[in-house]
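haha ok so turns out i had the wrong file open the whole time. this is the CORRECT one, sorry everyone. sequence first:
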Amino acid sequence: MLPLFRLKVFFEALARFHRINHSQAAVYKALVSYHGRLGCYPSHATLAAESGVSERTVRNALREARLRRWIDWTNERVGRRQSVNRYRILLTDEYINKVLNALHRFKRKTAEISEFFRRQNLPGSPYFYIKRASQTIWKQLDPPSNGLTPWQRLFRDNREAAMAQVFSQ
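then structure:
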């Protein structure tokens, strides 16, 4: 099992690289905080209250994380009527390390650019160059083989079949 603090930092890094928005990061961090040895069973209302967003935002964030294959869930029945979602985190330690190393490179590059602007007393803001450095570092992470995952190719070619595949799981 992955250390939970690394997962939280991972989602913060993705938000910093603008790959997810901050409300999605809050939902994912709230989900990780409920992860335990026996599984993860928070309701959408609990995740919404914990992360400070609406239940619809929680549903959308979880659906997107499932499409990216970061998490998966199964619906399990407890008792006669009540059913719960059991969430599993599918992120590999290798991918998390790549993103966190990219975050460290980004922080160093940000410090270099800011220091350069400060020392040279340049007019304007260094944020344009910082954003460009962020995009360059993110592109250096290994993209999926052939540029797209099989599901992304299916989504590009036939959106209805791809969405049917997602909702049938």
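The two ends are 24 Å apart (CA to CA).
again sry for the mixup
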